[in-house]
Protein 1
Amino acid sequence: MACDNKSSNKQATKTPTPPAPPKQEIVEKKPTIPIVKKDTLLVKDVINEKNVRRFFTEYGKKNPETKLLLKTRLGNMHITLFKETPLHRASFIYLIKNGYYNKTCFHRLVKNFIIQGGWSDTEIVQKYRSQLNNYRIPPEFRKGIIHKKGALSATRRWVNNPEKKSNPFEFFIMQTSVDCSHLNFEHTVFGQVTSGFDVIDKIINQKLDGNSEWPEVDVDIEFEILD
């Protein structure tokens, strides 16, 4: 599904930006509350705050994949997920296999900083989140796994989130080589782009729609699990 329904939801959450770049915060989009038909189930599993750790620990054992191909109209990227962040890795694989990410696009482009994806203002994306109870993942900060160019990291809510739990539905990829150590131990890095760095630059240089950091022409996301 293309992310071409650009409604007012795009502007629902304004990402706070500190005055001195590059110290910017990455936050999740606040989902609206959709009306979900009981007979339209997109996922079969029940995941919530109480069982999220147990569920993805077991799911990760049965689904050990770490190699991904991210396809876009501007080119492809190869990504490796880290075994050192097992909950984030398992959740990412789960959402790919259950069709979530392929309904989304890159919705926030910040030059010399990040490309952020995993959102669309289409109803089906909101249904996925609602049926999965908008679950959050405990942080998995690891020494030596940092925010460098090509790092794949999770967004999170900054307000009323003292445990720094991740939003699994959105992610960002670092485009800059500038020191962004202020993000370390604030957002969980759980993967790394290994090839296709030029595609990151092509995406970030797309013309914006003029009202937000959303590109004028959508950059849809398609993930393929390789191994």
Note: Residues 112 and 176 are 5 Å apart (CA to CA).
Protein 2
Amino acid sequence: MSLAALTRPWAATSYGFLDASAKREIRRKMIKAIAVPGCQMPYASREVPMARGWGTGGLQVTLTLVNPRSVVKVIDQGADDGVNAASIRRFVSRVSGAAETWDTLAATIVQSRHRVPEEVMREDQVLVLQVPNPEPLRGVEPNISIARQMHADADYGKLWLTLYEQIVRKGRIMQGAAYPSLVNGRHVMTPSPIPRWDVPKLHMARHLTFLSAGREKRLFAVPPHTRVEPLVFSDRPYLVEDHAELVCRRSGISGYFMNELPQDDGTSAFEVSDSNLGIKAIRHAEGEVVEIGATWYRNGEMSQ
């Protein structure tokens, strides 16, 4: 027997990198996740050419959804030009033939780490959020089997107790990113490490949202026009970050979520987190014809 007899002829990689079996399984779990909003669905997370914890879950969902007519936007902490965002966007384009874009309005698939775009997404768009830890009960119940039973029983008393303790000790709820939220009145989910500013954008949104954790092998979904309600007490309303008065040093716009940049003199400068929105604002100020879509927030207040 020769070595040539033991090898197969060269063949191109499967379309979209993932093999047909992997895509079929993920699609089935995605359909189940849509049918039971907020409920975590286990799946056999495949190996992809990037390290676990760097967006492998979101990448697998994107590769399952993408087709040659897709237009893909990838953002990392709101920025399109980050190394991780650029690498994922380029990889998806190369293995699928899909077009790349920085414009939220032009995209059909938006994959994101830690942010939801400021421009309102449409019915024909899909948001894919990368999730490092999909289990909202992990902090109060480390035993995953017991946590699953608590989800089945809708037993979220420990989560409420945690929020209550924060109010007693600090005077307010200290939970920042990944704020636990009740989906469709049934399952509590962690909406990825998006800031509190972004959680209201998922409530009754027109677009479909998938949240996937490749390292934890779990995905869940928020279908269009689904209630997403942060856990709050009736006398303690949900508050987002107070960024209404902050002004972007580059684009001059205000009323949106900002990144704080410490300066050498001890002060802070601010830049709008949604980098493409800032770019559009700059181009518009320079006299270019630029389409800026409706935004979720206006002057720091939720407008949708």
Note: The chain has a mean pLDDT of 94.
